[in-house]
Amino acid sequence: MDFSEKWGTSVDEAVRLALEDLKLTRDEVNVTVLEEPSRGFFGIGQKLAKVRVEKITVVKAPEPEEIKEKTAAKPASAERSAERTAPSGEKKTERPQRDRSERPERRDDRRPERGERSDRRERGRRDRDRERPQRSESKLALRVRPDDLQEMTEHPALTFLNEVSEKMGLVLEVKCYVNEENVFIDIEGKDSGTIIGKRGQTLDAIQYLTSLVVNKDSEKYIRVVIDAENYRAKRERTLEQLANRLADKVKRSGKSVRLEPMNPYERKVIHATLQGRPEVTTRSEGEEPYRRVIIERK
Asked: Long-range contact list for 268-271, CB < 8 A, 24+ apart?
């Protein structure tokens, strides 16, 4: 691979990840900044940097020793030609026969490489199986709400979200529904679009911060899910449509498609949507938070 595109909290971080991916140094590549980073407001709405790092193609010039060897080889070639045309009375120099027994050894040396490729494919299948959800349910269970939720007017999650929205200058209506293991937050209002952010990134960030607040003094883990204007269900439908459209493209062209980095839940939506498509397969690659789904033709 001669290029790599990476995301990072800064341009330098993204370049470092790309160099590790290519196993090259900074002097051996060209760097193109595709997206500039943005710090956002208190880390909310932060944009990552994206770079494209390409290997510099260099044509190696022959070393002086190689030139001398080629020059010195010409008289020897002329001598061999003279020996072949010498009179029959003179002794001819015989060419050494190549030992053909070495050839099978070279073929044998290549066999472990094919085995290594097979091992990599097998590891990829195992990683894919671990991330794929079971398709026994009609929809993923992460957003399904339990029946025993009760609305709360006072809760640490409510206090935190009201403080954040006030400091951001947003007009929002926040409702909280709780049971022993879950906290579901519904947000409505004219500024809901701001709290959602690009592709739900701000909403995910606020959900993560709220989860830290809720679980700070809790003895057992409490799951926190924040939704705004039913965005989660809409996003899930959008991802399902995207997955099917890209699967059709892969089926027609035979070329794999790499999606943008997604959080674990969105990747599971893609895997679950295409699990019933026999003509394509999916896998994930990369490290969080830059892990992405690859759709390939079987």
From this structure: 268/131, 268/132, 268/133, 268/140, 268/142, 269/140, 269/236, 269/239, 269/240, 269/243, 270/239, 270/242, 270/243, 270/295, 271/128, 271/131, 271/132, 271/133
Q: In terms of DSSP bridges, do strands 150-152 and 173-178 run parallel, antiparallel, or are they unpaired?
A: antiparallel
CATH fold label, 151-229: GMP Synthetase; Chain A, domain 3 (3.30.300)
Q: What is the pTM of this model?
A: 0.51
Distances, alpha carbon 176 to alpha carbons 80, 91, 173, 212, in Å: 93, 102, 10, 16
* pLDDT tens figures, 254-285: 999 999 988 888 999 999 999 989 999 999 99
231-298 maps to CATH 3.30.1370.50: yes
* Lookup: tokens for 277: 């498509």
CA distances 71 to 66, 95, 113, 152, 277, Å, are 9, 21, 38, 89, 62
